Amino acid sequence: MAAAAAECDVIMAAPEGPGEPESEEEARREAESFKEQGNAYYAKKDYNEAYNYYTKAIDTCPNNASYYGNRAATLMMLGRFREALGDAQQSVRLDDSFVRGHLREGKCHLSLGNAMAASRCFQRVLELDHKNTQAQQEVRN
């Protein structure tokens, strides 16, 4: 996951007014700040605001698996499972070892009535972390 967290593609735009365009490091810091704000709203159960901040983090650094994973969790809390599935799938495309991404993808598949796809996701979690109790429980169910 460290590799995915470190990656950040920044499209350099023309500077707005005086000053230099953002450096990749500045973009990374800004994206992390958005994620932290999203986390704070998520903790307060303000999922709409959390969603907005996770989206800002993604817009700033679109190649970070955890940002998509966090937004997927938020969408799940909002009952928007099809959108959450897309974000969970994007998180594991960016980082196939992102356990929480696979878990969320599996839970979305379950919520959408696709037990076979969910089972594959939970099996992948167990390949990555054979002691993962959430995945073990889901596989037993």
From TrEMBL:
TPR repeats lie at residues 31-64. Keywords: TPR repeat. InterPro entries: SRC_co-chaperone (IPR052758), TPR-like_helical_dom_sf (IPR011990), TPR_rpt (IPR019734). It comes from the Eukaryota. The keyword Translocase does not apply. The keyword Ion transport does not apply. Residues 1-34 are annotated as: Disordered. Signal peptide: none annotated. PANTHER family: DNAJ HOMOLOG SUBFAMILY C MEMBER 7. This is Uncharacterized protein. The lineage of its organism: Eukaryota, Metazoa, Chordata, Craniata, Vertebrata.
